# Entry
Amino acid sequence: MKRERIEEIADLLNKRGRLTLEQLDDFFPNVSQMTLRRDLLQLEQQGRIIRVRGGAMSVKEVQKVSGEPYAKKSASNADAKLRIAQKASNLIDAGCSLFMDGGTTAMCLAKEMPDIDVHVFTNGLAVAIELSQKKNVSVTVLGGQVIKDNLSTASPVAKDYFENTNFELAIISASAFTPDIGFSCGSMIEADLLKMARQKAKTLYMMLDSSKIGKIMPHTFARLEDIDVLITDDDFPNDMKELFRQKNIVVM
Amino acid sequence: MKRERIEEIADLLNKRGRLTLEQLDDFFPNVSQMTLRRDLLQLEQQGRIIRVRGGAMSVKEVQKVSGEPYAKKSASNADAKLRIAQKASNLIDAGCSLFMDGGTTAMCLAKEMPDIDVHVFTNGLAVAIELSQKKNVSVTVLGGQVIKDNLSTASPVAKDYFENTNFELAIISASAFTPDIGFSCGSMIEADLLKMARQKAKTLYMMLDSSKIGKIMPHTFARLEDIDVLITDDDFPNDMKELFRQKNIVVM
DNA sequence: TGAAAATTGATAATAATTAACAATTTCTTA
DNA sequence: TAAGAAATTGTTAATTATTATCAATTTTCA
# Structure
């Protein structure tokens, strides 16, 4: 009872980096704040977290290069991304081979990923490092020049590389989506990569949090009908869901 | 006035790890607690400290108490590695293009690297992320499967990749060295990569801390006479230095 | 020099944390 | 299995830390 809750809190903190007591309270509605406080105290004594005013933060989070732009960015819409990542992680079976991008949603997924025998291709450096923590996951990084603001790689030779590479599944996310423009992102070379990934994969899962709807970015890499499964959060509008379902796309 | 005080506080925190507001007040009797609070706030915004109830703690302190395997390893002989990295960083000029490996010494160098216009090729994920923090450094990661225990990549196709890649300088380090076996490391595929890097580079700098002397690892990637400059620490034995100098290798 | 900006200090208002104890649950072991 | 001990939990009150506010002071720079 207690033990499990404490482990859950530790997990949560490792994934989210930092939480307020109120947020914790939302996650554990059936225990009092005082209990959560006591749990945090215990975790602090174990050296696993740091209690700060208002809540606590994960030691691991602090150990990651502090102040990096990436860590900051990953905070936006963290709740939705976490839930999307959780859904996505349930769709991954042992023995499969998949592609993931290097975005912040992918990073959430990397943290949520079960430690099972899978092979992951990714162009995200942080994603690769996160996945390397797992014993059973093998990881391949696509080489290329590092894009500093999202710590992912992009390379014109990726195409050649993909020639001899096989994966059933691609799980990617977009920076923007509208029904007529489709899924788009800010960098052409990244769009290129994602396009290749989707063509190569048998099945394409798109992770899209609702804040991306209606936005347009310069480079489209997939149209609505290109995807097989849409993974999103609860705020995703119903009429939009219907649009996907009409094209036989699974929405979850 | 303010600037200095803030620096002093940061220093103090780095030395003491953690301080209460009262302790800080003792150190700075001529400013009010409120001022110290504001200083701490500012330091927190810079990501240099973490404010906790009652006071603050140094981020560096937290980073020390690490559990990750990579972070652990990088602690061994940290002093020597830091000094070696500092020496190496002075040898890097603006405008140059260089290769670095993904080892812990390279990681130190990445941290010490001046923020100047250089291009770095590396197979180290952590190295790449660290270098990405610098505005003027552009980074290319070599793709490949991730070796989990040192977070670097290795790939049989690296060879093809190197075909069209040019750099003047390779700065690498070895896991082991003896005069007759040469420089060696534990993984064949890594040895292969390093061999290619040294053949490709006009100049080869080897960073070798003295603890590596006399050790032998399975795969040799360079002989004594292959290198141009040896960068080492003060404990490096003199007779060994002489050996290098006889071959016209600069020892520093 | 003199006005604007930044820094600082004192106090009040707010919020978070701890302390204390009773109520509940879980664990022993007779 | 039932009584008692130990651990866990919740509620409230007390304490403490933090933030907000505004006036006073210092610094900056035109």
